[in-house]
Specification:
By secondary structure, the protein is α+β, with helices and mostly antiparallel strands. Helices cover about 50% and strands about 15% of the residues. It has a single domain (about 15-145), classed as Ribosomal protein L17 (50s Ribosomal Protein L17, Chain: A). About 15% of the residues are buried.
Length: about 150
């Protein structure tokens, strides 16, 4: 019987597991949608829901508690500024896990974990915007005039 074994160890040491989930929480807060394996996503869902619930009560103690868990000031700021306002009317269930098939290399079950009512622009946070230089414009105009 599996009494009092309430989480998956994922074949990792406790330190590795703790840092893995800290990094996954930070990524999920930053991008609002990540792709990972199904067991990791199922373990991450209650953690992100607890983080958002803590962020809904805006006081110093909760900020310190979240910073000790996430260790990233920008993630803590986003939880308190954006996510707590977005989910103020919702009682729970801030995230969802969607199955996404199987990984090609090792046939591991994959899943998408995302925040409900997520911001679609959050996926493009780190992607650099294309900067058009004068040379690019000249070659584009030359190519179009040659046609």
């Amino acid at each position: 019987m599996r009494h009092n074994l309430g989480y998956r160890k994922l074949n990792k040491t406790s330190e590795h597991r703790k840092s893995l989930f800290k990094n996954m929480l930070n990524s999920l807060i930053k991008y609002e949608q990540i792709i990972t394996t199904l067991p990791k996503a199922k373990e991450l869902k209650p953690q992100i829901d607890k983080v958002i619930t803590i962020g809904k009560k805006n006081d110093l103690n909760n900020k310190k508690k979240l910073f000790s868990k996430l260790q990233n000031q920008s993630s803590v700021k986003k939880v308190f500024d954006e996510l707590s306002k977005r989910y103020s009317k919702r009682k729970g269930g801030y995230s969802r896990v969607l199955k996404a098939g199987f990984r090609t290399g090792d046939d591991a079950p994959m899943a998408v974990i995302e925040l409900v009512d997520r911001n679609l622009a959050a996926r493009k946070v780190d992607k650099p915007k294309k900067v058009e230089t004068k040379e690019n414009k000249k070659t584009e105009t030359a190519q179009t005039s040659a046609k």
